[in-house]
Amino acid sequence: MGDLIQQVESLQLLNHFLLTLFLLVPMILVARTVVAGTRYSPILIIVIFGLAMGFVLETSGLAEPGLGQFPVIDLISRTTNIALIVTFFVGGQEIRRIFGNKEGKTKDLLVPSEEEAVLGTKRTQLVLIVRSVFILLGIEAVVRLITGQGGALSNYYPILAYLGLVGAVILIDSKATITQKPLYIRKGVLEIIVIIGISLVAFHLAEFIGEYIALPSIFFAMVIATVLGMLLYSYVFGPTIKALLFAGIPVVLAGTFLVGGSRISEVFSMEGANAVLGYGFFGQVFWMFGGMALLMFFANTASVRNLAPGMAGALSHTGLTGACTAGDLGTKAADRAPMLVNIPFAMHIFVFSILAVSADQEKLFMWPSVVMMLLGFVLLVLGLRNLRSAKGNATDRFEIKSLLQFGFGWQLIAIFGGMILLSINPMSVEFSAMAKASAISHFGLFAAIQNGMFGAEAAGLITFTFSMTFLVHPFVFFMFGRAMENNEEMPKLPVYILAVIGLVGILASVLFL
């Protein structure tokens, strides 16, 4: 009887694996179909589709809040670190090339197929999307198996690892032109091994350092991947990096939105949820459009090549980072985003240190927060001034340097200024951290809370609050879509209006909710 039960459970795992594929991949394909022929990002649709689907699964009785009945989807939603390791690696390459005056990478090994498999998605792109699901599941299962992490699927990590890694290796578009197929496949295997290695080293470093300072594993993964990218600046991507760059973040977001959507009914009935969601919604508007308004008014730039990667880095913004790296916002934004995300992320050693002490004290560690906010203001002014004077500079380097200064400054103001503002409200520091992570779609803070930095309750709720505030993103991506269709120039008046609405909204949510 025991053998029979085990066989039935194994069959259920296979069903969950296939169901995850059939839920996530069509969601991304539908999103790409809806925006086909426009300059809008498909993440615009993934937000709405994912939250609605999660809500329907819960209200129809098919699942409980958190999608415990769909453990593979929940596992996908926890693979943020894997998708970001690739972004950090590419960012390290760009840092070395631009600031080290190094030549770009050599000729690509893959020429993608131009055949359209689904409206808005070419055949090679479809393969990249499906392969991303396999890669994320396979690597996450291997890391959890080696590190001994538990979970609903802990008994099935070996089979998940096998299915994921085998699919990741063999899924290559047969109609794409590959100049050196054996080398290309070997690169894919090597990239998987390296990502697993970085994840394991980052996990153990976080465990070791955790006795002194609560830095999450994503911080160490960023440092290692960035340094590796700087050393291997001429490395030509294999199939693993290509897949995760193109579809890694969209797949993770699709899983996150499904899980978050399933918690809509639950969280709205919780005490303190209104203040968290209110600040999160209006914070999304203010910190995004407020930052763009500063760039437009003081730095005199409305170009997407500056606004998109600049704000992605300034807020460590998950959705905008994914749109940039996928190429939805132009080649310049795609090239700049990994680097502009990486370097401001380095100062998270201060962010996580101060927030870790705040979590222990159960209140905001005030004086270092004020110091960091003031430092952010200085860097912000410096960046805006330099970017304004970069108008006549023909090279990218000066413009990028100015955007990095702006990114450092605005992120310090957004995080610590926001936390200081939230301290006025009687909500707990755990809820303040959730509100802050949700208000700027901050992938680092999201991953840290999800991994338990602020306790089990915050770890369970962050997926919902983070997902719900993504409902503001249709405005964000609509505006960027309009800009792309307007010769890549962002219209100024709507940005100024949204910035003012966001400011009024966050003040009202803190003072009255």
From TrEMBL:
<keyword id="KW-1133">Transmembrane helix</keyword>
<feature type="transmembrane region" description="Helical">
    <location>
        <begin position="212"/>
        <end position="236"/>
    </location>
</feature>
<keyword id="KW-0472">Membrane</keyword>
<feature type="transmembrane region" description="Helical">
    <location>
        <begin position="403"/>
        <end position="425"/>
    </location>
</feature>
<feature type="transmembrane region" description="Helical">
    <location>
        <begin position="159"/>
        <end position="176"/>
    </location>
</feature>
<keyword id="KW-0812">Transmembrane</keyword>
<feature type="transmembrane region" description="Helical">
    <location>
        <begin position="339"/>
        <end position="359"/>
    </location>
</feature>
<feature type="transmembrane region" description="Helical">
    <location>
        <begin position="461"/>
        <end position="481"/>
    </location>
</feature>
<feature type="transmembrane region" description="Helical">
    <location>
        <begin position="13"/>
        <end position="31"/>
    </location>
</feature>
<feature type="transmembrane region" description="Helical">
    <location>
        <begin position="75"/>
        <end position="92"/>
    </location>
</feature>
<feature type="transmembrane region" description="Helical">
    <location>
        <begin position="243"/>
        <end position="264"/>
    </location>
</feature>
<feature type="transmembrane region" description="Helical">
    <location>
        <begin position="43"/>
        <end position="63"/>
    </location>
</feature>
<feature type="transmembrane region" description="Helical">
    <location>
        <begin position="365"/>
        <end position="382"/>
    </location>
</feature>
<protein>
    <submittedName>
        <fullName>Uncharacterized protein</fullName>
    </submittedName>
</protein>
<feature type="transmembrane region" description="Helical">
    <location>
        <begin position="126"/>
        <end position="147"/>
    </location>
</feature>
<feature type="transmembrane region" description="Helical">
    <location>
        <begin position="276"/>
        <end position="299"/>
    </location>
</feature>
<feature type="transmembrane region" description="Helical">
    <location>
        <begin position="188"/>
        <end position="206"/>
    </location>
</feature>
<feature type="transmembrane region" description="Helical">
    <location>
        <begin position="493"/>
        <end position="512"/>
    </location>
</feature>
